[in-house]
Design brief:
The chain is mainly beta. It has a domain of 263 residues. Helix content is 3%, strand content 60%. The strands form three sheets. The protein has a 26-stranded antiparallel β-barrel. A three-stranded mixed β-sheet has the order 7-12-13, with no helix packed on it. Strand 21 and strand 22 form a beta hairpin. The longest helix is centred in the N-terminal third of the chain and has 8 residues. It is globular, with a radius of gyration of 31 Å. It starts with 15 loop residues before the first strand and ends with a strand.
């Protein structure tokens, strides 16, 4: 950050100041509201500093200049940047950027040590037993020890860079970024090893990350050709390699490790590991003629990760017969990306465009067999003839994507468009080895009248796979274990189910927009976007996602009744629907569950999400020669509906709706005190309410086998008022 300390005063006698501005004031938030202050730094009740600066200076004789800008300097969303350079010669810059993300402050945790890598239970806690069958019994043991839990994370970025013109079209540049991120987020901690005996807790996970990024580049440019070669480095470091927590549940049947329960049971999970990424890239373009442009990008990269493995189990007393096969993953992924594109106006009315993308992810991580322990609850370790013997799967893929487009100006005011895409993806060690997708696109844009323009486009896509096989099951489970299964039960995921991102899919998409200006002071717009994905086909079984569709349309208007008055209004509607089918089964019915035809465990789920947003605002400048003021009002409502249906003997009921309501009002007024000074009054008012069945009235001990945080969905009405003084000078 030493760049920011370059003395600028030495240039003062020769400088010609350009326009600069300083804003200083104070504001007040009338109550705590973490959701309101999620990213803007206004989450706490009380006063705050308003500070914004923009200082610019330029020497007319030497073309030397400098600038200092700062925004939100009194808040946790502040940014400060300094630039220094000479036009046409060099440029230096340094920047500090801070952003706080606030999650929820209404939760509570049973554990001591939130924010650290070791969570312990408080003294006096007796553990939850299988005899604690009611919420009241569990609450009597847990509630006296609950502690407030604030979920927040803060990111700080330090950036420094330089660029220099080397002459004859050459330019070199480099920039470095150091990012620090710390705080607390939620994760799940589980003890157990089968479908019936897991016990879990929502636990605070520490965030203490550092990322260092470096990019250096050398570029060359002429009137017809541009070229750039660059190197990029990213180093990620986590100060916490793992998170341990004490088991709050007493020993239960199925935990074969006698020490797994409270107070001796210790769980451990790995946190994001240290890793690094290196990349070399070249990109550029060439104009062989005035009507043709060629472009290219080529990059090769390597990601590596060799963080030492954690032990199979952290609970003392668990017997490990077979050690870890490796000391670390020794992960390595090589990446290759190539992009070629061209644009050419081959005829006065015809323009052609094309592109080719090659994206290869080659996972070179070595494979090994791991005899894992079921969530710190099994002893002794299982053998290779069980489902606890698993081999990691390095997943590689390769994409070839071709796009062709043609624009034809049929006559004045009318343009036709047609296009074709071919997308082929090859995958290794996944259910589908290759998918192919073909897309045809057609569109027309027309000036319907002098002040009316409209466009409509339609695209039809068809994706098909070349065979669906349970490769992950065959490659990850041991041959000894697979030999214990019958042909009808030798599967992990139901053989009739298709993952939606692999399955056959027909997609239709229609877009429409029109804009009109019936008068010089009025602008109207209407746009709509509709798509439908259909996943059923003759060779597609009926398990998995069946279809999905979405609709978005927007109406907007702008009105300028006078030279110094502008108004606007808009309305947007979004709707997403999907439907899927699957089936549930037990060990005794697994073989029958994999056969086509009706099954007692079949079920369906329909999802329907809808959102509406309305906004209106105005701005008036120069009122009575001194006053600017304006307002923006936004109202948003969204509803999420999940409707399960069963065809068996069980009865399925719709889940409660998830509902969100937001009303936001922004007001501002500026009064000109003198030629270069203003007083500014600003107000931000929000009313927000969220209803989420996953959290509504769910106490920490509401569920028999889960200790949650009991946090509440956001519900607030808050106002922030600010008064500041703005001074502009040269």
């Amino acid at each position: 950050m030493a760049i920011a300390l370059v003395p600028v005063a030495s240039y003062a006698q020769q400088e010609a100041l350009v326009s600069s501005e300083v804003e200083l004031g104070a504001g007040y938030v009338n109550k705590d509201a973490w959701k309101f202050g999620g990213y803007n730094g206004l989450g706490d009740e009380g006063a705050y500093l308003i500070g914004n600066i923009e200082l610019r200076s330029r020497d007319r004789e030497t073309a030397r200049w400098w600038g200092l800008t700062g925004t939100n300097l009194g808040l946790s969303s502040r940014n400060l940047r300094f630039d220094l350079g000479t036009q046409g010669s060099y440029r230096l810059w340094a920047e500090y950027d801070q952003l706080e993300k606030r999650g929820n402050d209404t939760g509570r945790t049973l554990f001591n040590g939130a924010g650290s890598s070791s969570l312990t239970l408080p003294a006096g806690f007796a553990g939850i037993a299988t005899t604690d069958t009611t919420q009241a019994l569990r609450a009597a043991k847990v509630d006296p020890f609950l502690q407030k839990l604030d979920l927040r994370q803060e990111r700080q970025n330090y950036v420094a860079g330089l660029s220099a013109r080397l002459g004859r079209g050459w330019e070199a540049s480099a920039n470095f970024r150091h990012e620090k991120k710390d705080g607390i987020k939620l994760t799940g901690g589980v003890f157990g090893n089968s479908g019936g005996n897991p016990r879990s807790s929502l636990i605070p996970e520490p965030v203490d990350y550092e990322t260092n990024q470096l990019e250096a580049a050398l570029a060359y440019a002429t009137q017809k050709m541009q070229f750039k070669a660059s190197y990029y480095l990213s180093l990620f470091n986590n100060d916490n390699t793992s998170l341990t927590w004490q088991n709050p549940y007493r020993q239960i049947a199925g935990w074969t490790a006698a020490s797994a329960g409270f107070p001796t049971g210790i769980g451990q999970l790995a946190l994001p590991p240290e890793n690094q990424f290196h990349q070399l890239a070249i990109n550029g373009g060439y104009n062989p003629t005035q009507t043709t442009r060629l472009g290219y990008t080529l990059s090769i990269g390597r990601m590596t990760q060799d963080e030492p493995f954690l032990p199979y189990a952290a609970t003392p007393g668990i017997v490990i017969n077979t050690p870890l096969p490796r000391s670390s993953l020794d992960g390595q992924v090589n990446t290759t990306l190539a992009n070629l594109n061209f644009t050419s106006r081959v005829l006065p009315r015809l323009t052609l465009r094309g592109s080719y993308r090659f994206d290869d992810r080659d996972d070179r991580t070595p494979r090994a067999q791991y005899l894992y322990i079921g969530a710190d609850s099994q002893s002794p370790q299982s053998g290779v003839a069980t489902n606890r013997a698993r081999t990691n799967l390095p997943l590689s893929h390769q994409q070839n994507l071709v796009k062709l487009d043609a624009d034809y100006r049929l006559f004045a005011g009318t343009k036709l468009n047609a296009g074709y895409d071919y997308d082929q993806i090859r995958r290794e060690l996944e259910e589908v080895a290759k998918t192919k997708e073909h897309t045809l696109r057609f569109g027309v844009r027309r000036s319907i009248a002098e002040n009316v323009t409209g466009a409509v486009s339609y695209a039809r896509s068809q994706r098909r796979y070349d065979g669906y096989h349970d490769i992950p099951f065959e490659e990850s489970f041991s041959p000894e274990y697979r030999a214990t299964l019958t042909a009808a039960t030798a599967w992990d995921n139901n053989p009739l189910m298709r993952k939606y991102n692999f399955s056959d899919r027909d997609r239709d998409r229609l877009k429409f927009n029109v804009s009109a200006s019936p008068q010089q002071s009025v602008t109207l717009g209407l746009s709509a976007d509709y798509y439908k994905d259909q996943h059923e086909s003759e060779k597609n079984p009926l398990l998995g996602r069946q279809e999905a569709k979405g609709t978005t349309y927007t109406l907007d208007a702008a009105f300028t009744p006078a030279e110094k008055v502008t108004t606007h209004a808009y309305y947007t509607h979004d709707n997403y629907k999907s439907r899927q089918q699957n089936r549930s089964f037990a060990s005794a019915t697994k073989a029958a569950a994999g056969l086509e035809g009706p099954f007692a465990g079949d079920w369906f789920v329909g999802v329907d999400n809808e959102a509406d947003t309305f906004g209106v605002g105005f701005k008036l400048t120069g009122f009575r020669g001194r006053i600017d003021f304006g307002a923006d009002l936004t109202y948003t409502t969204s509803t999420g509906h999940v409707d399960p249906q069963s065809v068996g003997t069980s009865t399925a009921l719709p889940l409660p709706e998830n509902i969100t309501r937001l009303t936001a009002l922004q007001l501002f007024a500026k009064y000109q005190l003198q030629k270069n000074a203003w007083a500014k009054l600003s107000l931000l008012h929000q009313k927000y309410k969220e209803s989420d069945w996953a959290w509504d009235n769910v106490r920490p001990t509401e569920m028999a086998n889960v200790i949650s945080t009991g946090q509440l969905p956001p519900d607030y009405t808050v106002t922030a008022l600010g008064l500041s003084y703005i001074y502009r000078f040269q």
